[in-house]
Amino acid sequence: MGRRLYGRCDFTRNLSGLFHEKLGKNQSHAEWLMLACLDHLQHKPQKPIPSIFPPHTSPPIISPMSDRLTQLSKLYDADANDPFLTYGIALEHGKLGNFSEALTWLDKTVALDEHYCYAYFQQAKMHEEEGNTPQALAAIDLGIQKSQACGDEKAAGELAELREMIQD
Predict the structure, then answer these.
(1) Which of 54, 64, 93, 140 could join 98 via S-S bond, C-beta 3.0 to 4.6 A?
(2) Structural domain range at position 36
(3) Residue 16 binned pLDDT confidence (cut-offs 50, 70, 90)
(4) Are residues 74 and 124 in the same domain?
(5) pLDDT tens digits for 69-123?
(6) Can you give the pLDDT at residue 68?
(7) Rounded to the nearest 10 degrees, what angle do helices 29-42 and 8-22 cross at?
């Protein structure tokens, strides 16, 4: 059998050697890795690729979450009485780790529709993330009451399961 063109051992050995060879230069790890890959694939040394960012800075991180949050905020500005929008905004803040902001939006959601049962579920999760177990359990209890009152047994069951997970 013939030798594999891009064998794992050869690539790892070459990548390691090139990385250590370039350690003394003032380049980012991403530039080192890119150069090592180019050197390996083209079998010739590459000149350093100039960075478009000033030294000691990183490229800006563009989050798709912030784009969704912007879109939801625009929709909310057009219709502030839609609990689906406030719930969506709350979830986006939660995904970004802004739990207190998420809880504010979840409060708006249940103020607009007290039977929006999954808002109580999310409130409990956010309170638990913040380390506030008593508040999490209170949100679960209220959510179970509201979901049973409107006949949403599925939501009541999921809230009860969440309570068991939190209490363990």
Answers:
(1) 93
(2) 1-55
(3) very low
(4) yes
(5) 999 999 999 999 999 999 999 999 998 889 999 999 999 999 999 999 999 999 9
(6) 87
(7) 130
Environment class of 37 (CB within 10 Å of its CB; exposed 0-12, middle 13-18, buried 19+): middle
Same domain, 152 and 82: yes
> Could you give the CA distance from residue 42 to residue 104 in angstroms, rounded to a whole number?
55
Residue with tokens 């109580």: 120
Q: Are residues 138 and 116 in the same domain?
A: yes
What is the rounded distance in angstroms from the CA atom of residue 161 to the CA atom of residue 40?
Answer: 53
Q: Which residues contact 133 (CB under 8 A, 6 or more apart)?
A: 127, 166
Q: Quick one: 100 and 48 in the same domain?
A: no
Whether residue 76 is found in the same domain as residue 25 = no
Q: List C-alpha distances in Å: 123 to 55, 103, 139, 140, 154.
A: 42, 6, 6, 8, 17
Q: Assess whether 69 and 49 both reside in one domain.
A: no
Q: Does 33 lie in the same domain as 82?
A: no
Token pair 């051992």 in the structure block, residue: 9
pLDDT (tens digit per residue) in 125-161: 999 999 999 999 999 999 999 999 999 999 999 999 9
Domain shared by 48 and 123, yes or no: no
pLDDT tier, 4 (very low <50, low <70, confident <90, very high otherwise): very low
